[in-house]
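In the design runs reported in the main text, the only information available to the sequence generator was the tokenized backbone. The following block is the verbatim input for one such run; it is reproduced so that readers can re-run the procedure and compare outputs position by position.
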């Protein structure tokens, strides 16, 4: 919803799409707080979206996938191109480091998910665009940010992030939420955006 707010301040109409009803609720609350009337929200799974039925073929001057799995498959990326009559924007981490999250993935899930090459889906998307003879402008930048959370909030945050990777057992959930476990690690996580 934060991006919709920024786009709505500049555009005639903005449509925000998300698979999560909770995220759409937050977005609508943010829009209502600013009294914006040029926004619309749709709950849908981009993978399954029928652009013909939605009448979204070449409808938008800008289609964005910001921190979104909307470009994780060839078909999803093609849908972005199909919905746009002018531009598309993909904004995502190439590589992301989280000092606490990385430890939790390894300790709780038993997975060392570090990959020196980063986000494979992003690289694949660029290759697909090049094969279509579309030559995207690529901009990289590094960011560092620190987020400090109380233990309970940190536990909920990391539990939600790990659950995005797949279902957790009750024992794994308890381990993530265990204060002693979390307090063994710095509760300041560093995210690097490239």
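Verbatim output:
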């Amino acid at each position: 919803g934060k991006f919709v707010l920024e786009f709505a301040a500049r555009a005639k109409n903005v449509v925000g799409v998300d698979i999560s009803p909770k995220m759409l609720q937050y977005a609508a609350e943010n829009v209502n707080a600013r009294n914006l009337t040029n926004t619309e929200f749709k709950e849908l799974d981009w993978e399954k979206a029928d652009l013909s039925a939605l009448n979204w073929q070449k409808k938008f001057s800008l289609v964005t996938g910001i921190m979104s799995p909307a470009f994780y498959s060839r078909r999803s990326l093609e849908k972005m191109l199909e919905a746009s009559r002018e531009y598309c924007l993909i904004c995502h981490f190439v590589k992301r480091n989280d000092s606490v999250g990385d430890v939790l993935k390894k300790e709780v899930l038993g997975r060392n998910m570090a990959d020196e090459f980063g986000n494979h889906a992003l690289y694949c998307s660029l290759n697909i665009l090049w094969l279509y003879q579309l030559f995207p402008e690529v901009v990289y930048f590094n960011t560092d940010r620190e987020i400090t959370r109380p233990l309970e909030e940190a536990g909920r945050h990391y539990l939600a992030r790990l659950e995005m990777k797949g279902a957790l057992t009750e024992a794994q959930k308890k381990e993530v939420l265990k204060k002693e476990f979390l307090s063994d690690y710095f509760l300041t996580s560093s995210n690097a955006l490239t």
